[in-house]
Amino acid sequence: MTLPTTPSFRLDGKHALVAGASSGIGLACAVALAEAGANVTLAARSADKLADAVAQMRAAGMAADALPMDVADVVATAQAVADAGPFDILVNSAGLARHGPSVDTTPEDFDAVQALNFKGAYFLTQAVAKGLIAAGKPGSLINITSQMAHVGGIDRAVYCGTKFGVEGFTKAMAIEWGPLGIRVNTVCPTFIRTALTEVTFQNPERLKWIEEKIKLGRVGEVTDIMGPVVYLASDASALMTGTSLMIDGGWTAD
User: Fold this and answer.
1) Catalytic residue annotation
2) How many domains does the chain have?
3) Would you say the pTM of this structure is higher than 0.85?
């Protein structure tokens, strides 16, 4: 009898791009990939925050560099990715939310949210895939969406719409690029405690709604996303594409 060998979760020799990496979930993903051995390029709009994150990661012995980039600027992003790639791994955590009642949505808010969450995500994923295809390499492309990509949410119609859209193009891209060895998946977190979500947790009505929905009885932490992202980036998930990892504490189990 020959015992099977567990596929490796290591990412040694891989080059990863993490967008939205200056803080929160994106920074946690960058650290996780680097800890697993990847050379990680951190991308975000804030050059100062990126420089600080990269300095701290390097001080901890991780391989990291910075790429100031606005994902919503699809032309500049495509050029930046072409110049710095090819990337074996993409984690796109760049995102925007402007919550409010659907009847109060303005065209300006709608356009701003979809420009980053949907259009930007689409063309960033495309840009990384183009680099892999040109190089004849396989890869793992991961978009951070949300549990709100699978359910509705109070005051979140535009946000939900953009995240549902990412789930849709993820499946289509996975079908197209599967024969090339390029996998495309999403990670769908519940409410994660970050500087940006604190305002939601400070609203007693919203906090009660969240706590009732999360079956495990707690909100998420950025560390809850780190393991799943490494899994999807690595050979341990080699047969996974066109699907979603729900990191939602049971929210969508109803």
Assistant:
1) 159
2) 1
3) yes
